[in-house]
Amino acid sequence: MKLAEFFTSHPNQLWHLAKQMGVDYAVGPLAREENGLRPWDYMNLLHMKQRFENHGIELLVIESAPPTNKIKLGLPGRDEEIEWMGQLITNMGALGIPVLCYNFMAQFNWFRTSTTTRTRGGALVSSYDHSLMQNAPLTEAGIVTEDQLWDNLQYYLERIVPIAEKAKVKLALHPDDPPISPIRGVSRILRNAEALQRAIDLVPSEYSGITLCQGTLATAGEHIPDVIRHFAKQDKLFFVHFRDVVGTPDKFHETFHDDGQTDMYEAMKVYYEVGFDGPARPDHVPTMEGEDNTNPGYETLGRLYGVGYIKGLMEAAAAERRKSSAGIQDGIAVQ
After folding, report:
1. Running DSSP on this structure, what letter comes out for residue 122?
2. Residues with Cβ < 8 Å from 16, sequence gap 6 or more?
3. Labelling 172: which of 60, 98, 143, 214 has CA 20 to 30 A away?
4. Taking the alpha carbons of 319, 321, 324, 330 in that order, is the dihedral positive or negative?
5. Integer distance in angstroms from the first to the last C-alpha of the chain?
6. Which helix (H) or strand (E) holds 3?
7. What's the whole-model pTM score?
8. 266-276 pLDDT, tens digit each
């Protein structure tokens, strides 16, 4: 496993802290428009990649995209958005950036009803209570059905997967968060492992797989070790968001990495069991004492805690894997 962090496109404190913690891999956004260059233009991506490399960090994932809402809703102008996505993927391939994390959540991305829920020690986390959305108004998109989204996803994949294959860039589809449908009249179709499987089967390709967001799929009631094995055996596990929650799709809150409903050590052992060697990053961390919560889920102290916890799990899982392998070899030698 390649432990990564999600960084800004330009150096800040976290870039230095990450190196001090031994994190050598980056998940990056698209940089802002500079000198008339769009965020997904080749030179803009090149400059960002070079900034990381000059800091001793390898950029493995872009977790951002040009506008895509017309693609998701099937609106006029979607072909232009697909063209922009194609340009991003082509430029990523030319620069050797191997993974694009994308989603198919229309109108709004990950969604919460609170970003100030108290958890252990008074730390702040995000939470979702579906009962609070029952009387919420529709968005300007009105009613968006699941059938519409599935049709639009197929239309998109039929056009974008061949570009990814040519560029040799892996498309890592993120599940819908929260995994509940609809929200404000907008359906959410990628709510569990079965739906993710259906999605990547629409246009089969070795370059079309998933981002395994543990928190989202744990919310959906999935057994994370089983999900890891299911997608890893198909070579469809491209990227991991390592986080946890407590609750169900109707009502849940995020947690510290060691305080949720998933056996995180068991999950880590399975990543080593299946030989996962892709990027993984902590995600949606608590806001801790002394932080102002201006960027919920992405303040600094919780990330430091998460990285340390994950590194400990990695070391323990690797040691157990070595011990297990040695035991098998000893058994064969005896025979």
Report:
1. G
2. none
3. 143
4. negative
5. 33
6. strand 2-6
7. 0.95
8. 999 999 999 99
